[in-house]
Amino acid sequence: MALPADGDRSAGWLIARALVLGLLVVASYLPALEAGFVWDDTIFADEPVVHAWSGLWNIWFSPADIKKEGHYWPVVYTSFWLEHKLWGVNPLGYHAVNLLLHIANVLLIWRILRRLAVPGAWVIAAVFAVHPLHVESVAWVIERKDLLSALFYLTAALTWIRYVEAPKPARYLLVLGLFTAGLLSKSIVVTLPVSLLIWHWWRSGRVTRTDLLRVAPLFALAAAITALDLSFYTSREPLALGYSFIDRILIAARALWFYVGKLLWPTGLAIVYPLWEIDPVDPVAWIYVLAAAALPALLWIGRDRLGRGPLAGVLFYAVTLSPVLGFVDYGYMQFSLVADRFQYLAGLGVLAVLLGAATFAVSRLPSALRTGAGGALVVTLAVLGTLTWRQTGIYRDPVAFFSHIVALNPEARDAHLNLMGPLSDAGHHEEALAAGRIGVAQRPGNADIHSNLGRVLTRLDRLDEAESALRTALGIEPRHLNANQNLGEVLRRQGRHAEAIETYHRVLEIDDRLVYGNGGLGIALFHSGRYAEAIAPLEKALELAPDAHFTGELAMYAGRAAFRLDRLDAASAHLRRAAASMPDPADALVELSNVRFAQGRADEALDHLRRARELRPNDPATLVNAGEALRKGERSTEAIALYRKALRIDADFVPAQVGLGAALFNLERYDEALESLTRAIQQEMDPGTAATAHYLSARTLLELDRKDEAAAQFEHALKRDQNHAKTLDYLAHLRFGQKKYEAALDLYRTQATLKPGSATVHANIGVTLYFLGRHAEALESMEQVLRLDPDHQMARKMVAQLRKGNR
Q: How many Å apart are CA 412 and CA 430, to the nearest integer?
């Protein structure tokens, strides 16, 4: 097998070669089709502007609306916008488009090199197709900008060649349009005009006045669009890294040789390379500079013997890399001074020189050796393709991605911070915690790392530690959105709902469209008994994220809140949505049965309960929930059967014992009810359940005319939940009946703080004050009753009586 000859121009052979190039790309990058979104992919994947149909206007005319993008590259985001309309946020489609773009670039490179009669054009294109140094640009969706800008760059270059050979205004205008599109994809292609002049020199040995005049508009266009992008970038991300001019020379020289080294020996490819220490007194640093200056000088001196090609290739390489060599500050320089993706186009200059020279040399060898060289090419492509396959696998998911970064560069800025979230999302919480500890040690003053640490600790249910980490984050950055949001979650889970509500309000002051902020606020308000207030933020969260994985939970809370407000139609709609959204809708079905009972649709209610029990036939909690629905639907006998079944499965299941007691109470089987409730009280339980158990025991004891014992149980209920509304009401009436008016007054006043708008509570306070002989205060309370309920007859009579007495 010999190296392919580029001189064969038969259509069939050209098509076959093109297909082989495409197959090489697909075979090498196949794992990319199973990859997900990683790191900066969230810039477009989570961006509302990309999701909205109206977002195309924002992309072009209001780029600041793309919150996390610092550049003005609207062509790239237009492609993302269009794809979102085709396949949403399915990563497969985006990765497939990246592969197709890379294939297009490979074919364009082959076409241009053939047009320029570069030896080994197909070989150069094949190596470019499978080289692992290009994985970052191809397998990482957000790097679409490298592929798109290269596509327009190469197409513009090919069109320019045709224009020079046969000048036509339409071709020149096409070059301008393609170059504009390239600059609006990624401004790294700003060097195209210089590259065209290099081509002119390589072609004829000089650059004419005509060449300069023709290229001048491209320079003007490059200057204008690049200035626009830089202005936008510096307004979004002002940066001053403090490198001196000498430092930048040293950075540039080392980077040039670094990329050559990776092209020739592509191993240890890191997504974030270690940040170099730049030391002007280091003699090795100056060796890079001298070598970078000597090579083009030697090629210039030897151009008559070697030809202009080697120097042209080296100049193309250096010029194309120049925007990212550190002469101008850009954000990624905080992480690393080099990145594989930066040389996607530039490396072509080195490949063309080396492989072109090798092909020329091989063509002069005897036939047998040429066959051996063909075999060496096959082996080389197989090795490069295998390395590319393995490197592509790094983009499988965020855990693999950030683990690779940490493995090759443990000191990479924010690497452990970025690894924490994916590890935790994958359920590896302890590993995430270990990564967080390292991140905190590396950057103790970084609010993000403390916020993420708090999030992981929350998932581990280590809430006190989580709160400490989050408050540390807020001490560094008080308006840190995620830290405030995570703190709200911690406070809510600790039952500190008032503090959680305050925190969520702070979150929404920062971003009122944050789904988790609205949802968390709604849930905290629900648990505070503020049902009417809870519905609006819950519904807003559902509107903002209609298809999120937590939609079912939010809809469930919205339905429960509406049910408690007797808004049965709204409750039904939300709970049906919850049942449709949840993988296991048993809880939603039970809640929906409550609504159906309240609507008088008992058959539907029973059907929902049947379905819930079929989903979880031996789950005590589901049986109890179904029993609760039956009990509240005045079907206590049926409820008792379910409670007893739950207790046969788990004899110590407290909710079943409490529910059984409540159902027996409803059936006036007081002794049995008290027995079940007493068993429950003797066990450990959460404060809310305990308060309910003591309250029901007290009610039962009252029915058995054991008032002192009942009072004691009411007191126990209040110790577990000082705001248990029904207990406050019954105990206050009991104390009033016992003529313990001061105690009754304290209880009524506690009720008033919970229900400030209740005319009944204020009437009870007024009556109690009257019996205490505090008539002026009693009058004030009764006047408050009339302000709340002007038709309250008892209050009217007492006000009249008290006013008469005061006269």
A: 21
Treating both helix axes as pointing N-terminal to C-terminal, what angle do 347-363 and 367-392 enclose, rounded to 10 degrees?
160
Residue 1, pLDDT score:
45
**Identity (one letter) of the amino acid at 801?**
Q
Token pair in block for residue 274 = 């270690």
Identify the segments of the chain with pLDDT beneath 70.
1-9, 806-807
* Cα–Cα distance for residue pair 20/6, rounded to 1 Å: 14
Residue 525: closest CA among 550, 508, 513, 510:
508
Q: How far apart are CA 366 and CA 83, in angstroms?
A: 52
Tokens 């000859």 correspond to 5
The long-range contacts involving 747-753, CB below 8 angstroms and separated by at least 24 positions, are 750/722, 750/723, 751/725
Contact predicate 33/94, CB 8 Å = no
> By the 8 A CB rule, do 449 and 443 touch?
yes
Which pLDDT score is estimated for 7?
54
d(CA 534, CA 696): 28
CA distances from 560 to 24, 568, 575, 687, 690 (A): 57, 10, 8, 21, 22
For residue range 51-108, what is the model confidence (pLDDT) as tens digits? 889 999 999 999 888 888 888 999 999 999 999 999 998 999 999 999 999 999 999 9
C-alpha to C-alpha distances, 230 to 244, 473, 509, 629, 704, nearest whole angstrom: 20, 32, 31, 63, 83
16, 19, 24, 29 alpha-carbon torsion, rounded to 10°: -170
Are 46 and 408 within 8 A, CB to CB?
no
Half-sphere exposure at residue 68, Cβ-oriented, CA atoms within 13 angstroms: 12
Distance, CA of 374 to CA of 90 (rounded, Å) = 41
Query: What stretch of H or E contains 432?
Result: helix 429-442
Cα separation, 611 vs 588, in Å, equals: 11
Provide φ and ψ at 320, rounded to 5°: -65, -30
Residue 293 structure tokens: 């200056």
552's CB contacts (< 8 A; 6+ apart) are 577, 578, 579, 581, 582, 585, 588
Measured distance CA(108)–CA(531) in Å, rounded: 63
Pair 398, 421: CB distance under 8 Å: yes
Q: Give me 539's structure tokens.
A: 């519904």
Place of tokens 């007493």: 678
The whole-angstrom separation of Cα 494 and Cα 486 is 12
Q: Number of H helices and number of E strands within the chain?
A: 42, 0
Name the phi and psi angles at 666, rounded to 5.
-60, -30
Cβ–Cβ < 8 Å for 802, 778: yes
SS3 content of the chain, % helix, strand, coil (to 5): 75, 0, 25
Question: How deeply is 750 buried, as exposed, middle or buried, from its count of CB atoms within 10 A (0-12, 13-18, 19+)?
Answer: middle
CA separation for the pair 451, 488 (Å, rounded):
12
| 446/194 Cα distance (integer angstroms) | 42
CA distance 276 to 278: 6
pLDDT attached to residue 265: 94
Mean of pLDDT over the chain? 90
Q: Which residues of 669-701 are buried (b: 16+ CB within 10 A; e: fewer)?
A: bbebbbebbebbbeeebeeebbbbbbbbbbbbb
Question: The tokens 């509304």 sit on which residue?
Answer: 725
Residue 347: helix, strand or coil by DSSP? helix
Long-range contacts of 281-290 (CB under 8 A, 24+ apart): 285/250, 285/253, 285/254, 286/250, 288/250, 288/253, 288/254, 288/256, 288/257, 289/249, 289/250, 289/253
As a whole number of Å, the end-to-end CA separation of the chain is: 122
